[in-house]
Amino acid sequence: GLENVTVTMGTRAMKARAKKATTTTKPNFVVGFVYLLATQLTSKLLPFFINTLVARQLTPEEFGVPTVHFYLLSTVILTTREGFRRALMRDSVSDASLRYAWFVLPIGGFLSIAVPTAVLWSQNISTAEPYGLALAYYGVAAFIELCAEPYYIRAMRLSAFKLRLVAESISTVLRSVLTYVLVSKTQNNVVMAFAYSQLLYATSMAIIYIASTPKALAKSSTKDTATVKLIGIFSVQVCQI
Predict the structure, then answer these.
(1) What is the pLDDT of residues 41-59, one digit of tens each?
(2) CA-CA distance, 184 to 178, in Å (whole number)?
(3) Which residue from 9, 55, 96, 146 has the fewest beta carbons nearer than 10 Å?
C-alpha cells in the first residue's frame, strides 16, 4: 500500500512538472512568433510605404540606383555573416564557441573596403563624385552593422525576439524618415540622402544590440574545431547561392 501511494505521488508530480513545462513553453513560443511577425511587418511594410512616397518625387533612374545598386553592394558585404549565423545559432554549439563570431569583423572589414573599391575602380569613378562617395558610405555602413553581429547571435540564442523587434523597428523608422526628409529637401543629391540614411540605420542597430545584449558568461580558450568547420561550410554554401 505504501509503495503504491509513493508511486502514485511520483507519477502525479511528474505529470504536474510536464504540464507546467508545456504551459510555460507554449506562451513563450507564441510570444516569440508574435515578435518575429511584428519585426517582419515593421521592416517590410514601413520601408515600402516610405519608398513609395520617395519614388513619387524621383525619376526611375534616380530611385533605381540607391535601391538596386547600393542594395546589392550591401548584400555582398553582409553575406559574410550568414555562415556565422547558421553555425553559431545551432543548439549543439556551446556558448563558449560564440567567440568565433568576432571573426566576422576582420572578414567584413576587408570586404567593406574591397567591394566598394573594386566597383569604383571598375567603373572609373572617384569618391569626389556623389555616387562614388555614397558607395564608400554604404561600405562603412555595412561594416558598422557587422559590428553588432556577435551581439545579435547571442541575443537570438537567448530568444531575445523583443530586442530584435525594438532594434529593427527603431532603426527602420529612423532610416525611412531621414530618407524621406533628405530626398524632399535635396533632390539634386539623392544618392547621398540614401547613404546618410543607411549609415544612421547601421549605427542605430549596432548601438541597440551592443547596449542591450547580455554579455557572455562562458569563457574558454579551447579550440572548437567542429564549429570552425561548420562556419566554413555554411559560408561556402552561402557564397554558392
Answers:
(1) 776 777 778 778 777 777 7
(2) 10
(3) 9
